[in-house]
Amino acid sequence: MMLFSTPTQTTLHYRIVTPMFLGGEAQQADPTQFRNASFKGALHFWWRALNWGRALKQAGGEQGAALRYLHTLEGDLFGLASDGKNSKQSRVQIQTDLQGTTLKQPGMALQSVGYLLGQGLFRFGHGVLRQYLEGGELAVRFNFKPGTLEADIESVEQAAIALGLFGGLGSRARKGLGSLALQKIERPGQPIREFTSIESIAAFIQTLDFSAPADAPLSAFTQATRIDMSATAGKALDVLATVGNELQHYRGFGRHNPRTNQHEVNGQKALQKFKDDHDNVLAATQGVRLQQLPRRAVFGLPHNYFFSSTGGKLDITAEDEGRRASPLLIHIHPLQDAEFVAIQTLLWGIFLPDDMAVEAKGKNKYAIADTQVDFTHITRYLDGFANKKTLKAPHHG
């Protein structure tokens, strides 16, 4: 009698807790068919972030060798597409089931998070510019091939948990939109694990590998990683709006209010912590060459400036790629006491490779000479939240 071993199955239950701008090639959201490719892409991102320390140890601390080893591990586990004989099949099959979500149309909605939506998704006076998904539950099932090592199964589960505690899907996912919140994970023969309390989230963080130095060449968990719970409210969108207002107030120069004769951000006196950024870029729109990257660039590129007072414009982009994602990731998570909390994760690493130029384009186009960034500008922003709880503090050494 021939015996066949059954595949290991893991099922994860997520909630979509903030508006998700997830669509196909035409950017059209579909509440009836979930895009598995988007989930797989996010899963790979978190798997690499979690396993960088492991790869670096295996490579004896040499980053180039570590990147090659990480790529090999990823291909062995998730498959590798190739026209030649080196193609590999994935050891994990992913099935998804989306239920209860609503398709929302463009219009005058989400005003409270307009700053986080940014250009392309939101325009003041017009509202939201694209369809999006609201609410709903996503069940994801992993079917692991027989013979898959337990360590590999756990590494995939760990990445899926990280996605459901720190990340999201779709446009502006790093800004807290499309937060995909993990509620529980099930595997036959094992206890159900739930992630609806601060204690359960903190316990998971304690299991992660933060051994790698801060100079990671990719988004990864390192010694310098910081994870904070930063704000709470009874509604997910209210938490996201609080975070957005805090970020805008911290970064913004503000508009002059003639009634109060001061610059304000959302009705509050502007902090103007980056006044030199404002002044230097304003001068650059008038023909003065910009010598260094604005300090706020550490929050991500491109930076597009427009000064209504002068009509001046300046676009700052990373060469070729054009975009450098923010190292700060915002996620909104529901807790068991009917509250929602913001989880903010700073993945400190190499923001710009030494050989990557950054271009300024205004009246002229040129490369900016000094492209150094300072991650402490982000840590000071995180420090500004009252009643924050740091679940993982940076360690430099």
Account of the protein in words:
The protein is α+β, with helices and mostly antiparallel strands. It has two domains: 8-111 and 128-210, no CATH class; 227-392, no CATH class. The chain has eight helices and 20 strands. Strand 14 (303-307) and strand 15 form a beta hairpin.
- Characterize the biggest β-sheet: 5 strands, antiparallel
Query: Number of helix segments?
Result: 8
The Rg value, from CA coordinates, equals: 22 Å
Beta-strand residue percentage: 15-25%
Helix/strand order: EHHEEHEEEEHEEHEHEEEHEEEEEEHE
Task: Give a count of the beta strands, DSSP E runs of length 2 or more.
Answer: 20
Strand-pairing-aware structural class: alpha+beta
What's the overall geometry?
globular
How much is the average pLDDT? 92
Number of domains in the coordinates? 2
Poorly predicted residue ranges: none
Distance between the termini: 58 Å
Q: Please bin the fraction of helical residues.
A: 25-40%
* Spatial order of strands in the largest sheet: 2-7-1-8-9
